[in-house]
Amino acid sequence: MRRLLLIAIPYAWLVALFLVPFLIVVKISLSDVQLSIPPYTPTLEFSAGWTGIRDFFSQLDFENFVFLTEDSLYWKAYLSSLQIALVSTALTLMVGYPIALAMANAEQAWRPTLMMLVILPFWTSFLIRVYAWMGILSTEGFLNQFLLWTGVISEPLTILNTRVAVYIGIVYTYLPFMILPIYATLEKLDVSLLEAAEDLGCTRRQAFWLVTAPLSKPGVIAGCFLVFIPAIGEFVIPSLLGGSQTLMIGKVLWEEFFSNRDWPVASAVAVVLLLILVIPIILFQRNEQRQREAEQ
Amino acid sequence: MPDPKPSAQPVEFAPWVDPKAAPLISFRGVTKRFGDFTAIDNLYLDIFQREFFALLGPSGCGKTTLMRMLAGFENATEGTILLEGQNIGAVPPNKRAVNMMFQSYALFPHLTVWDNIAFGLKRSDMPKDQIPARVEDMLRLVQMQKFAKRKPHQISGGQRQRVALARSLAKAPKLLLLDEPLGALDKKLREETQFELMEIQEKTGTTFVIVTHDQEEAMTVASRIAVMDHGKLIQVDTPPVIYEAPKSVYVADFLGDVTVIEGRANRVGDIYEVSWAEGQPPLRCASPLTLAPDQSCFVAVRPEKVEIHADRPEDENVLQGKIVDIGYLGNLSTYHVQLANGQIIKAQNFNTERDTRRRFTWEEDVWVNWTVRCAILLER
Amino acid sequence: MKRFSFFSAVSLTLGFAFLYVPMLILIIFSFNESKLVTVWAGFSTKWYVSLLHNEAFLDAAWVTLRVAVFSSTIATVLGTMAAYVLVRQGRFAGRTLFSGMIYAPLVMPEVITGLSLLLLFIAVGVDRGIFTIVLAHTTFSMCYVSVVVSSRLATFDRSVEEAALDLGAEPFDAFRSVTLPIIAPAVISGWLLAFTLSLDDLVIASFTAGPSSTTLPIKIFSSVRLGVSPEINALSTLMIGIVTVGVISVSIMTKRSATRQARDERAAIQG
Known about the structure:
heterotrimer, B: 380 residues, Rossmann fold, six-stranded mixed β-sheet, 8 helices, 21% helix, globular, C: 271 residues
């Protein structure tokens, strides 16, 4: 009895507040927009009995999805989300790997402190961290002031409200997610493997490319997915740093819902976004699984 | 025409007693400190070509540091290390003609057995087309031809050990370092592998330096053993000498079982008599040492040298006691005989007969004795 | 042998500069006299004063705090239960769906989670307010709690629990008196994680909040959209300060207890 209750309570919670809402999204994505409350049709009328249910299903269609393919705004937004996520994942890897490597090579006594320094920004508000860059990247911001002062540039650069700002924002906010899994694999790496490589004639650099790099691959893959997956659906960064020209699907969904009040299209956008995410999520799960098996 | 080649192993292989022999490795006053901890303390040591040299000692005695300095992973704080007369202090590990077999084996998990063995060859000046043949040779040497395509996690612990050995021998190093090479294997496999190691060492003619804390392993494989403690060499000798003629209580106790009795020695003729307890006869000992009259000393007796009797034997060094403990090991039994003054003497008897009733039993009054030549007299 | 090279030192320095300089600039300019956030005009704490008189911010902060306390507490209870079910209860009908529902919210884009919950609340006809935000936050943060707790549950020696049962404890009693104290650190960090996630959340709260229940992130976001303001800098500085003090003191406490344990163990060995 107790066991049943133990399982049933969290189970019911998740069904009611995760599964059901998700099904509602799918359902509304198949409905038509209407100027009423709720602003979509059909609504399920149980009072009408069997015919009500049949009417309900007969009115569902893929119209909204067809609409998504017809309006270039949507597929451009999907493409640019994918592209921004890919580029910023690659950038995050390039910034994060050397940091993770340096942490793993640091003295044992220093590592907890370094770890904390990496995690600390993660605990501070995401919004604030993105906001911090607004003052840095603007035309009269610190970066431009600094570059003008050093004489690298003579005219201030426009960085805020461009894709570059979005890249910087994503790299900055998701850096801990890249560093931590890579650091975890590097820290577990048996130092004697590197010594063996050197003993067998490798230089330090060769030992890195022949031993460290291939063996840290699971961490790199995990880190990349941890950045890539949330970056695709990112909303705050493009809306604060990206300006109006930077299209990202999370922003489109938000505007479709709040500004245009087109719930069926917003839901369809959400469903397609999830379908896009399924592939990287499955790949990520498989990578995690393989790593767990390798550890056993 | 007679074969001019000398036999693989000379009858008497003992270059360390030959004053003309040039050592392969030579430690000259080597000290290694980590912070204020001294791992190696002003150490002098020569190791000769074709030796199977064992560094033996408890953990933290400095034996691993010594080995890592040979491999090039640590630099000496003071002193020099010579390889064939050349100071190798400044030579990085990847440029040394020294290879190491790691305790964890350190096989590259992402490479096959074949690629692991070829790893060092690819980074040597060996022409590319000769590498496959060399790898095959090494695979044959350790009998791993069938497993060339496997990854390290797909083979057993014993097989990994062989691959690690093959990989470190592939570049034909002048010196091979083995860090606890058999530590991860179970007892039976370890014993088999010890003989294989000796065979491979003889076949390849490589000089081996092995680090171990297992005294039986050192005794089995080594041409000479160096017993280390606190960064110093306590004694360097062949296994029989180190066992039968240890120079200190520490060495006697570290290798094999021993009963140690403290007393005061006095010379009587060509024999020392050690008086050690009220009411007990003095112990008679033959020794090459020269001790001052009444000098404090130790008598060390190995259990297998002690005979145990039901009746008083007509012999020297006879003591009476009572059996307080029996350890039955199958091939032999160890008896702990307690004397009237509380001293325990360990005696070992071979169980040469299949008699389930033991010859002696608990609480039995017995006599133990050993001959004058069997006890070792030690100053410290 | 040292592996920490010059290259390592440079990448650590640059890396941490990248992570911390933006926040430092933010903090410094919260004390700026001028309203222009990019030009230094002298030290002043006037933005903190004006923040303290800003009713809208204070209200939003109060809403956020209440939401975070409630949702993280409920999420910790539910998440610990879920973790226990996943790790200890073996197979049951619908286990795959259950573990799927635990892990899916972790990778679900916030916009979708927010949208779906809002559509649910409208379909059921619940008035949006603090209650709906708590429900929403509880749902996604219980998944984080359950991941944290289940990784601890999976690694600890199960025979301790079995010993409790062997000595006559009822299963619930064994959980309360043996399992819970052992996993307590994970449960606490789960609560902290849930708490910060809730404090931090903008997107899901925007979807599920009603007009009278604006949270602090929503308030910040709407004013930040209009541009940088020193008042927001002051608010950010306060938030960064609180979090930093919190994280550092928690980590010092865990380190202390770890050192104490190590010292006790050493003392015990030396007898």
